[in-house]
Specification:
alpha/beta; single chain
């Protein structure tokens, strides 16, 4: 259990263990049987998806947040799989959703034909993702011929299996949500001129009453199976999103789903096969994109890659992905996704961002102002999974300067300086100078990680080294669990906290004096200090390589970590050496000195409140 793996000894907790200890009873450790896993879910190649994004306006930071989270998860799982570039079976898809009434109206407002409008905005998304170092393998557009063929085939399968029928439908329709809204979820609102309109209670988006003949999907017949899937498996993360979703099944107003619209009202979409008077519902069209990128229905490799291992979505579209989507798949006889990460959203000026309200921050501006490293790290470290987070440029700079530049970057520069590390290699860890380990096994941290020659009169050395050693032993276990549960912000906090513990060791031991032979046992103390700090840098860099790969890949090279060793196994290597002894696996590993500051700080002044 994690509780055993991070047992805290007296006051020697340090930053890392102080952060981790409250999490032991929380969601991070609910399934302790998976704590030691270093493989992707179900030990298979990762297939990670982002939602596809409406092209009714330019990309904003909410789109980038979903995509960066997905990219970090994909990179981690591919890294743990040991996959190189992108071998068969490894998929990461993103792209644009280009049909529907909103896109039709946006194109009309811009004075462009719909496809020309889609071409222009979709290219903007692609360029933003490329500039943000997103490692997608597939970029899909729902206007592509391949996707249209997939949607038509999927529709025909649902018809052949008896799950679509024609019927009359009436209800409140939200153009912004591209969905019919149950009447109990709407309310009347009066504007300043006394005009009454009907709106969606939660979002405030306007709705209009529609009555028309549509094709209907037998949603209600699949709800019990969908509910079983959600409750019998740990599908939805975080738990707060799962709890909120389950309330949907208590809604007696759920009926069969209208899956087409009159083409006289909505011509911009994929026509229903065999009935050009109807256009396929945009959400059915959009959700099928995940099947398109997997090669459905013709690819011989489809069964090897399907289903997705992780689907990342915003919590505002969780119902479509965790109720409608699994119902569609069940109706077609296809396997359901393994996990869905439903994150919360950023606010701007403490108000929810919304394209329809014009309250957004441009993704392009964020990258131009602060660069992709600062943007990616800000999204990774922002705890925006369970609840909303405030966005500002000052917060982007603060996270980059205080954590990447000051803590991580300075640790790299200090420990790898000639004054502290005179040889261009990892020193041999002085295991022979440690006392006998008592009560230790693979799941326990030793109660005494003390340097036997410095027991008396050097309390700071004892406290700092004890905290860092315990951090290094617990770190690979904690990272496996954080990424298994997709708690990316917690992984970042623990990583920075371990580096703080390393900085405490560095300050306590003062290696710049030990290189001059100051004090008793100076060579042993120097090797002990520098090796612990180097191992903390290797461990943190392997994790951060998924977050800011453009910089950290080069850092791992300077630390002597080969590309094939950049995974959790390398972090566990030192842990196992500490716990089990034997030959030092990294002694003598050559390093390369830095020729430039790895993370130059932003010079602008900003508030820290």
């Amino acid at each position: 259990m994690l509780a055993a793996a991070v047992r805290v000894v007296g006051r020697n907790r340090g930053h890392f263990l102080s952060t981790l200890q409250p999490c032991i009873a929380g969601s991070v450790t609910q399934h302790s049987s998976r704590l030691s896993s270093t493989q992707p879910t179900a030990h298979r190649a990762p297939f990670v998806t982002t939602p596809i994004y409406y092209v009714n306006s330019q990309p904003h930071i909410g789109h980038m947040y979903s995509t960066v989270l997905s990219d970090i998860i994909f990179r981690w799982n591919k890294q743990e799989l040991g996959a190189g570039a992108n071998p068969p079976g490894v998929l990461f898809s993103t792209g644009t959703d280009e049909h529907g009434l909103k896109i039709q109206q946006a194109a009309e407002a811009a004075g462009r034909p719909p496809l020309e409008h889609c071409d222009l905005i979709s290219q903007e998304y692609k360029e933003v993702f490329d500039d943000c170092d997103i490692s997608y393998t597939n970029y899909i557009r729902t206007t592509s011929p391949e996707h249209r063929r997939t949607v038509e085939h999927f529709w025909n399968v649902l018809v052949e299996r008896g799950h679509i029928y024609k019927g009359s439908f009436a209800g409140w329709y939200s153009v912004s949500d591209e969905a019919f809204i149950p009447e109990m979820q709407t309310e009347a609102k009066e504007d300043d001129q006394g005009n009454k309109t009907q709106i969606v209670s939660e979002s405030g988006n306007p709705v209009v009453w529609l009555e028309e003949e549509n094709y209907m999907f037998r949603l209600k017949s699949f709800l019990p199976q969908v509910l079983d899937w959600l409750t019998e498996n740990t599908v939805i993360h975080p738990p707060s999103a799962a709890n909120a979703l389950l309330q949907v099944f208590n809604d007696d107003s759920i009926e069969d789903l209208s899956v087409s619209r009159s083409s006289s009202r909505l011509p911009w979409g994929i026509p229903v096969p065999g009935d050009s008077s109807q256009t396929i519902y945009v959400w059915l069209d959009a959700l099928v994109n995940y099947l398109t990128v997997a090669g459905y229905p013709d690819s011989p490799d489809f069964d090897k890659v399907w289903p997705p291992t992780v689907q990342v979505v915003g919590k505002d579209i969780i119902k479509f992905h965790a109720v409608f989507w699994p119902a569609f798949l069940l109706a077609a006889g296809l396997e359901l996704p393994k996990r869905i990460l439903a994150h919360s959203h950023f606010t701007l000026g403490n108000k929810k961002m919304s394209k329809s309200r014009g309250n957004t921050e441009s993704a392009k501006d964020l990258l131009e102002d602060y660069g992709q490293m600062a943007a990616r790290y800000f999204f990774a470290s922002s705890n925006c999974l369970d609840s909303t987070c405030e966005y500002s440029g000052d917060l982007v700079k603060l996270a980059f300067n205080d954590q990447l530049a000051d803590i991580y970057g300075n640790s790299l520069l200090r420990i790898m300086s000639k004054k502290c590390l005179p040889e261009d290699a990892f020193p041999k860890f002085p295991m022979e100078h440690l006392p006998e380990f008592k009560g230790c096994n693979a799941d326990l941290v030793c109660e005494k990680w003390v340097f036997e020659q410095i027991r008396d009169g050097e309390g700071d050395l004892l406290r700092s080294s004890s905290a860092l050693l315990q951090s290094l032993v617990a770190y690979p276990v904690a990272m496996a669990e954080c990424f298994s549960r997709m708690r990316i912000p917690l992984a970042m906090t623990l990583t920075i906290d371990m580096l703080k513990d390393a900085n405490a060791v560095f300050s306590a031991f003062q290696p710049w004096l030990l290189t001059k032979g100051v004090g008793d046992y100076a060579p042993e103390k120097l090797a002990f200090c520098t090796r612990l700090c180097l191992e903390s840098l290797v461990a943190s860099s392997i994790v951060l390589n998924c977050v800011v790969p453009s910089a950290v890949g080069e850092i791992l090279t300077t630390l002597g970590v080969k590309e094939e060793d950049r995974h959790l196994g390398r972090i566990r290597q030192f842990r196992e050496f500490l716990l089990s002894g034997g030959e030092d696996p990294a002694a003598g590993t050559e390093i390369v000195r830095f020729k430039k500051v790895p993370f130059p700080k932003f010079d602008q002044k900003y508030p820290k409140e």
